[in-house]
Amino acid sequence: MPEINPEKAVEVKPGVWWVGWPDHEAGFSNNPYLILEGEEAILLDPGSRLDIHWNWVKTKIESIIPIEKITMVIVHHQDPDLCAAIPLVEEIVGVNNFEIVTTERSALFVPYYGVKTEVTAVSDGESIEIGEEGRELFFITTPYLHFPGAMVTYDTKEKILFSSDIFAGFSIDWSLYANEYYLEAMKVFSQPYLSDQRHVHNFLRKIEGLELEMICPQHGSIIPKEQIDQAVETLRNLEVGIWQ
Fold first, then answer.
1. What pTM was estimated for this model as a whole?
2. Omega before 146 cis (within 30°)?
3. Pair 83, 105: CB distance under 8 Å
4. DSSP-assigned letter for residue 177
5. What residues form DSSP beta bridges with 33?
6. CA distance 191 to 223
7. What residue ranges do the domains of the chain occupy?
8. How far is C-alpha 158 from the chain's CA centre?
9. Mean pLDDT throughout 16-22?
10. Looking at the predicted structure, is the pLDDT value of residue 152 above 90?
11. In this predicted model, what pLDDT tens digit does every residue of 126-139 receive, in sequence order?
12. DSSP, residue by residue, 201-237
């Protein structure tokens, strides 16, 4: 993989951009993503509202499009590292001038951030079409990984799984794309944050038939195609739901 300038947005697939920020000191990267399809601009998990964090994301988005062009925000669960920046998007785009998409359970909590825009709730197996050619974003619920109302998004065009906290990692030695140490970083994150092996195996059954070219988690590193099988097997065999 090419060297990455963490101060710039990175196009990880055609029309799909990483607009996140690394936190080398904490070992806790955050990875919002932006999908552009025709006139539509979809921001996934915009992240923290802390100035230092939001400025990273805002600057990167604006290097590609004006933030006013955002048409949809997808959030995979209700935590502040995913949702807290939604009101900052709303201040620029305008109330109800974009769509917020999440699960029914998470939709209960999004307004707690001061969000005034109506939230659209989706269920397991539902999809939405974006762009003139009907690019499909497919939603898969992932209960208790790590929130009862969590979900992931599968982009059928580019065959990307936006996996939220699943396949995420903690790493001081961060790189945008998974390096040789990433499976260990994934273990360090997954063991305390994912609830139970039953739920992990349920999720893995749900994604079994998907053709995957890339996994894009909310934290840690992007997993390219050649490392996906190993990451899946690592996740399958992890003892999770533990805190040491």
1. 0.95
2. yes
3. no
4. B
5. 18, 44
6. 18
7. 10-236
8. 15
9. 93
10. yes
11. 999 998 887 899 99
12. HHHHHHHTT---SEEEESSS-BEEHHHHHHHHHHHHT
β partners of residue 136 = 129
**Residue found under tokens 């979809």:** 42
- Residue carrying structure tokens 């029914």: 104
The tokens of 167 are what?
Answer: 């396949």
User: Spelled out in words, what is the top-level CATH class assigned to the domain 10-236?
Assistant: alpha beta
Report the amino acid identity of residue 153: T
Residue 175's Cβ-side half-sphere holds a number of Cα atoms within 13 Å equal to 13
pLDDT at 172: 77
- 186-236 confidence digits (pLDDT tens): 999 999 888 889 999 999 999 999 999 999 999 999 999 999 999 999 999
Provide, rounded to the nearest whole percent, the portion of the chain with pLDDT above 70: 96
Sequence-separated (6 or more) residues with CB below 8 Å from residue 231: 167, 178, 182, 183, 186, 215, 223
Q: How many helices (H) and strands (E) does the chain have?
A: 7, 13
